[in-house]
DegT/DnrJ/EryC1/StrS aminotransferase family protein
Amino acid sequence: MTSDPTPIPFVDLHSLHQPIQAELDAAVAQVLERGDFILGQAVREFETAFAQACGVAHGIGVACGTDAIALGLQACGIGPGDEVIVPANTFIATVIGVLHADAIPVLVDCDPQTALMDLDAVEQAITPRTRAVLPVHLYGQLVSPQKLREIATSHNLILFEDAAQAHLGQRDGETAGSVGMAAAFSFYPSKNLGTAGNGGIVVTNHAEVAERVRSLRNYGAPKKYVHVYRGTNSRLDTLQGTILNVKLPHLAHWNQQRNQAGQTYDRLLAPLADQGITPMRNDCGSGHVYHLYVIRVNNPQCDRDRLSNALEKQGIQTGIHYPIPCHLQPAYRNLGYSAGDFPVSEALSEQILSLPMYPGITDADIERVVYALKTELSALT
Ligand SMILES: *Cc1c(COP(=O)(O)O)cnc(C)c1O
């Protein structure tokens, strides 16, 4: 083995924050000084700025991305008995959000090349009870806005985006969060835009939806002590809002760096295609914001886990997004699915591997990751 032991982390928040540390400290100190901890000035500023960045009229900060889905769906009028179509290959929070809106998640398979929701499967899953389609812009790339709208319009369905992995991602000139009736984002620390804890937002062009989320997140009260809706307590903390205000101006640049890194990976990995290593296809070009860089390992002599172990030995961290598709998660057996229902998602769950990806990852780091993959594969023959 070579003598370069510097680990390559899966994500690197420390390097991201270091250049803006003084600004972050000052912003946090200002909130502590001002004391407007609940729905304070920084939250209002961030809601306006983030909605504007997405190209929509309203933003409503909430406690996390899961709540953004649940409260956003509720505000769009989704409720008991309503079927909401979601991909089986997503983070479980998508499903939890639907269930917390008291609606019924109806799962569909994904496309093997992109791992995004299969839109033909969406059309086949539509029933008289279907009220909404909930695409997930997975790994940082958007599901086709035009095709989504065609489906929603022709079947009279609400379109609600789970954009938790695609802050400012674009496709065909459209921005994540501006495609449907409303959209949910998460600011979990490792997302493309992250807080120092939990946070989320609902964005929408519909004033009524915005007003309803504003009430729902704040005990269902449009006016203090007047509880018009069965709401909850789910607000974006002012301390988190102020951190997001410092970070938001850097987001476009960070996304550009992720996209560059994605292109570099694509180029360096291309020669490994005949050994069964294929990156997820990028259908968004420069609009792909690579929350994750995911490859598929389809080689009868070498499975995904062997490759991830080999990388680990060289100090290279990887991830799997996700190892168990939603329909096979133990807690959700009562949804009525079983193994074999979504063959593409099931196959991917055994073959996908997420490589280190973060703004500031160097070409040299990426070369080392690809070199490590090559070395392991060539040892087989
Ligand atoms: C992170 C994530 C969420 C949930 O966000 P939280 O802030 O952790 O609640 C929802 N959907 C997807 C696709 C995510 O990646």
Notes: The longest strand covers residues 58-62. The mean pLDDT is 97.
